[in-house]
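This section describes the prediction task in plain terms. A model, or a person checking by hand, is given the sequence of a single protein chain and must write out its three-dimensional structure as a string of tokens. No templates, partner chains or ligands are provided. The sample shown here is typical of the held-out split.
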Amino acid sequence: MKYKTRIASLFVALLMTAALAPHAQAQNKIENPDVTIAVDGLACPFCAYGLEKKLKKLDGVEALTVDMKEGQVQMKIKEGATVTEEQISEAVTDAGFTVTEITYPEKKKTAATETDTTGRSR
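The expected answer:
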């Protein structure tokens, strides 16, 4: 009887892994993400799915993809909404992971204007 229970448990675990696997891969990478989050500790589809669930609970998240291989989450924010770095870090930590970097790929770096000691621009 124990043998049949173990086989059934294994079968259920395999089915769950197969069901969650699409969530773990970045099959539909977001074009022009608003935020890219580097996450340390993504090791399996269950990890990625748990992280995805936590981040989707943030107000203003329109879409996101988790890329286990790269250890990154790409996130699109709804227009007019604001999601702070603190909220992102807290959600990632609550899911059991560590944020290593948060970047904003679409923000262009502005060129700083150099001034000399007289205040004139160069």
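For orientation: Residues 60 and 101 are 20 Å apart (CA to CA).
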